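batch job 7 of whatever, protein = Reverse transcriptase RNase H-like domain-containing protein
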Amino acid sequence: MHSVDYEILALRYALESFKLFIIGKADFTIRTDCLAIVRYFTKMKNEKKRSAINRWHNVVNFIQIRGFKPSFEHVQGKHNKIADTLSRKQDLP
């Protein structure tokens, strides 16, 4: 699997895990350091494209079926220290 595929899986898992907090929200922002996700969803929103034959199909359907209307924002890795800390294995004394 490509690293972007793992980012996509993480996005879907996060949406599923926090759905109780975001159901009914008109808009919310997903902040990610994965520029590919931000570019894809921004392009999809601007061009009104719905492609059923791409690797994003599963997440797109997940978002649409649940009525989520997120916006996406890119956060550079150096400014995303909390997420990096949570996703990296650290040696404990």
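notes: Confidence is low (pLDDT under 50) at residues 49-53.
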